[in-house]
Give the backbone structure.
Amino acid sequence: MASNCSGCGPGYKSPLDAMNGPREEIVYLPCIYRNTEIDKPDYLATVDVNPNSPKYCQVIHRLPMPNLKDELHHSGWNACSSCYDDASKKRNRLILPSLISSRIYIVDVGTDPRAPRLYKTVEPLELHWKCGLANPHTTHCLGSGQIMISTMGDPEGNGKGGFALLDGETFEMIGNWEQPGEAAPFGYDFWYQPRHNVMISTEWGAPKALGFGFKPEDVKAGHYGQCIHVWDWTTHKRIQTIDLGEEGAIPLEVRFLHDPSAAEGYVGCALQGTVFRFYKTEKGNWAAERVIKVPNKKVEGWVLPEMPSLITDILISLDDRFLYFSNWLHGDIRQYDITDRRNPRLVGQVFLGGSIVNDGPVKVLEDAELTSQPPPRMVQGKRIEGSPQMIQLSLDGKRLYVSTSLYSAWDKQFYPNLVKTGSVMMQIDVDTMKGGLTLNENFLVDFGAEPEGPVLAHEIRYPGGDCTSDIWL
C-alpha cells in the first residue's frame, strides 16, 4: 500500500534533507495587471534561473488566465512534503487563488514544468455557496491529500478568516475546514504543526477596506486585525486568540520553525514593523512576545509624519538558523540569526529601493538606525522602483530571490512609478556562515519589458517546493 512506502511521495523526508535538494532551475511567479493601465488577464510566468542556461533571467513561458482583474496572489501545491510517505501523490498541480475575484485556478505543472497549462478553474460561487467565504489567500497541502486554502472575507467583503478544503484529486470544493461559527474575524496566512495538534492563523483586514488602497482611519475603525489565532488541528476548533496589541497590528506571514517537533515560530506584523515569537507554554497553551522592532522614521513629504518599515514577507531558512524579512516602505531586506530564539540578531541588510531614497520626495528628519538616506538602487542600468517585498530562499539557503510588488492597489498608492514601469525580480547572495547579504549584480528579471506591457510580479515558487510551501509531519 502507498501509505507503507517510505519516501515514495513528493518532497523531502526532512527540512535538512531538503537543503541537499537540487538547485532551482526555474521559478513560477504570478503576474498581475489589475490596477495598472493595461486591461489584460493576469498570468503565471515561468522564469529561467539557471546560470548555465542561454535563457538565464528570462521569462520563458506565460500562462494567461481566462479572466480579467483576478489579482493572483499566493500559490501553493496539491501535494508536498506532508505527503512524503504517500506514493500515490505527486507535486504536479500549482494552486493559484485570486485575492479579488475569488477564483481558484489549478495549473498543470507536471506535464511540462517549463510550460504550465491551465487544468481547471474553481469558480467563486463554489467558494461562496459551499463555504460562505471569499478572497482566498494561502494554500497548503495536507497529509490527508486534501488542499486547504485560507480566506480573508465573506462574499460581501467583510472580514472572515475561514478555510476552504479542496479534494486533492478532483479539485472539487469540499467545504469548510473550520467548525460552524468558528471562523476568525479576519484572515490571511496559516501554518500547521500536527505533532503539537496546532494551527496558527493571522489577520490582514476586511477586503472591502483594503480593496482600493490603505487608509489609516480604517485601522482606527477596526477594519484591520491585530490577533493571531490558535486552532486545534484535530477538532478544527479555534481554541485561543492572542491579541498582539497595537504593536502587532496587521500580522501577515506566519512561520513555524521547520523542525516538526518545534513548538514555536514567528509572525511579521506590518503596521509597526515588529516580529513576534509565538510559542507553546509549560501550561500547554500558546503565548507571544515581541522580539524585533524596526523603528519608525520621522519624515516630511510623506502621507504621515512617521513612516513605519511595513514588514511584509518573512521566511525562515530550512535549518532554522536565519529569519529574513522585507521592509516594504523603508526599502531593505534583513537577515537575523535566530539560534537564540528569543533574541534575534541582525547579521545582514541590503537596501533595494523604497520610500526613503535620497533623491526622492521624502526627507527623513529623525532616524534611529541610519546616518543618511540610502541612494536609489540601479541594477544593469535599471532603477529599482518600488521596494523589496516577496522573498524566497534557495533550498541550500545561499540565494534569496526578491520581487517588488505587494498588492496592486497598495503598489499604485505608495509606488505609482512601480505600476507604470513594472516590477523586477532580483537575487541576493547569502553568507550562511557569518550572515550577510549582497545583491547579485548579474541577475535581473525586468517585468517592465513584458510583451503585453509592464506587469506586477508577486510570489516566487520552485517546482520542487520551497521553505514557505512545505510542511513536515
Observations:
- The radius of gyration is 21 Å.
